[in-house]
């Protein structure tokens, strides 16, 4: 297949606004690619390289050679060149990489050059496209989208799923199963503004669990060996000897368990989130004085040979209770009485925790999705939004990037909808950090505003949602303020415009 097809599809997807039309364009391109090249095409159309990083910086993309006349470059050739560039090392490697990039671009037409430069510079990165891409794979392969999504959550990446679907259809997708030792995308929660509304969305009886502001942990026990993964599927086992020791005590040989890690003070109240974050961050070196973490387990996905992903919530919880002692389990109350649920919520908040998660007793574990089976309720409204642009500060903040333009994800278009701006809540340290970080993400700058690639996720607190004619979604946040950055989340995991409407009533 020629790269020209991929470049053209990428442009069509960027220019069309309808979800259906985008899916159709992606599906046509994948159909043409076929099983072998599909993973490469999936990656390129998501703005990524299958090789991830190949060490090509902006400098190597500045001087573009004259274009070729005819579109002859193939996807396989581009992929092979990227692999070659990624393998360059040692003395003279910068020059050699440049040479390879120039050689590749010299064989591309003007339109293809434009696509390749934007692909290499990261400008096309589109995490929010995962949902559309899953649908496109389903359409190209003629299989149900739910099967593709399920394989995706089990595998954590769409490339191999595309190959299996295109080669062997639904049968190929059935080959993806939970493997102990390979992390799956964790199930996520929807949000409701109150306990009553959360109960309103579920059956009469539901479970209410504390929501701790810690770090998600997926614990795999394979033949007695314990491994711990974060929600971004990074392994952090080495950093957590006390957690590994606690899990080793459990009477299981093979299991996949889900829970939350948190640093607690002697009185049982949580340390600030940063303390837990520092213990689990994959990039930090050694801790000066490690604060012990406590593990609270709340789910089980696999137990000694049996997959429990499809078992109802109540059954998984019962299985968990059989193998995990109470002090390692998330406090949980099963009730049909909203007053009892509210008492549980009040207790969690009084102990310094974030709120509760109300969980359905009958839904399966919908990995990787913000399913309707879990609904979080917090006393204050927060959202994870994506920074779309940022304005230079004035006065004390001059020279610093300050006022953030905030966007929610729009699953319909695969893009983002702006909901407002804020410079509140930013400490000096955060201002310095975001100035550095957002500069690296810049794509364009006008007088006061730096427009950035929509990649950085920030957690925002706000008082409510107001109708607005100024913003494209028709709503704006009231009194938005920054709580913290969420480097553990990708833009694809940011909150959607529908979540924004569901966490708080829209005021006139
Ligand atoms: N009892 C619990 N059940 C499920 N998740 C819990 C629980 N307690 C804490 N959590 C945390 O809450 C998260 C689920 O909420 P959500 O899917 O909205 O993620 P989130 O956006 O990171 O949440 P938030 O930003 O509101 O903390 C989980 O990833 C987990 O880290």
From TrEMBL:
Q: Which reaction does it catalyse?
A: ATP + (deoxyribonucleotide)n-3'-hydroxyl + 5'-phospho-(deoxyribonucleotide)m = (deoxyribonucleotide)n+m + AMP + diphosphate
A molecular function (GO) held by this record is: DNA ligase (ATP) activity
**Which cofactors are required for activity?**
Mg(2+)
**Sorted alphabetically, which keywords does the UniProt record give?**
ATP-binding, Cell cycle, Cell division, DNA damage, DNA recombination, DNA repair, DNA replication, Ligase, Magnesium, Metal-binding, Nucleotide-binding
Which positions are catalytic residues?
Answer: 211 (n6-amp-lysine intermediate)
Query: What family is this protein classified in?
Result: Belongs to the ATP-dependent DNA ligase family.
Q: Which NCBIfam families does the entry mention?
A: dnl1, PRK03180.1
Protein name, please? Answer: Probable DNA ligase
The organism's taxonomic lineage, starting at the top: Bacteria, Bacillati, Actinomycetota, Actinomycetes, Streptosporangiales
């Amino acid at each position: 297949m020629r790269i020209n097809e991929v470049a053209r599809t990428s442009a069509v997807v960027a220019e069309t606004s309808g979800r259906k039309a985008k899916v159709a364009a992606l599906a046509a391109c994948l159909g043409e690619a076929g099983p072998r090249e599909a993973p490469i095409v999936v990656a390129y159309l998501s703005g990524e390289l299958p090789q991830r990083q190949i060490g090509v910086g902006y400098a190597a993309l500045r001087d573009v050679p004259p274009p070729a006349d005819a579109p002859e470059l193939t996807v396989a050739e581009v992929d092979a060149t990227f692999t070659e560039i990624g393998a360059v090392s040692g003395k003279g490697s910068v020059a050699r990489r440049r040479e390879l990039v120039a050689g590749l671009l010299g064989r591309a037409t003007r339109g293809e050059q434009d696509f390749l430069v934007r692909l290499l510079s990261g400008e096309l990165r589109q995490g929010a496209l995962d949902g559309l891409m899953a649908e496109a794979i389903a359409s190209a392969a003629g299989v149900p989208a739910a099967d593709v999504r399920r394989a995706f959550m089990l595998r954590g990446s769409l490339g191999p799923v595309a190959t299996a679907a295109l080669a062997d259809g639904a049968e190929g997708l059935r080959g993806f199963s939970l493997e102990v030792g390979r992390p799956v995308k964790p199930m996520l929660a929807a949000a409701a503004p109150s306990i009553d509304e959360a109960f309103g969305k579920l059956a009469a009886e539901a479970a209410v669990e504390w929501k701790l502001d810690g770090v998600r942990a997926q614990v795999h026990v394979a033949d007695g060996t314990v491994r711990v993964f974060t929600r971004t599927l990074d392994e952090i086992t080495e950093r957590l000897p006390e957690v590994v020791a606690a899990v080793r005590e459990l009477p299981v040989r093979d299991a996949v368990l889900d829970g939350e890690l948190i640093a607690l003070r002697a009185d049982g109240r949580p340390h600030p989130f940063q303390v837990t974050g520092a213990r689990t961050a994959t990039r930090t070196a050694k801790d000066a004085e490690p604060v012990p973490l406590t593990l609270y387990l709340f789910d089980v996905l696999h137990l000694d040979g049996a997959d429990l992903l499809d078992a109802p919530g109540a059954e998984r919880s019962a299985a968990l209770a059989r193998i995990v002692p109470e002090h390692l389990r998330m406090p949980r109350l099963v009730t049909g009485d909203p007053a009892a649920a509210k008492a549980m919520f009040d207790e969690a908040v009084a102990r310094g925790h974030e709120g509760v998660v109300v969980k359905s007793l009958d839904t399966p574990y919908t990995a990787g999705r913000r399913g309707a089976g879990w609904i979080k309720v917090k006393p204050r409204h927060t959202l994870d939004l994506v920074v779309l642009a940022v304005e230079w500060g004035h006065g004390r903040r001059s020279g610093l990037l300050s006022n953030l333009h905030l966007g929610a994800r729009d699953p319909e278009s695969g893009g983002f909808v702006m909901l407002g701006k804020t410079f509140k809540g930013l400490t000096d340290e955060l201002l310095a950090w975001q100035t550095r970080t957002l500069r690296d993400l810049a794509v364009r700058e006008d007088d006061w505003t730096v427009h950035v690639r929509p990649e950085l996720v920030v957690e925002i607190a706000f008082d409510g949602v107001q109708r607005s004619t100024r913003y494209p979604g028709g709503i704006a946040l009231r009194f938005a303020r920054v709580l913290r950055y969420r480097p553990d989340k990708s833009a694809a995991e940011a909150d959607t415009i529908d979540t924004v409407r569901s966490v708080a009533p829209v005021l006139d």
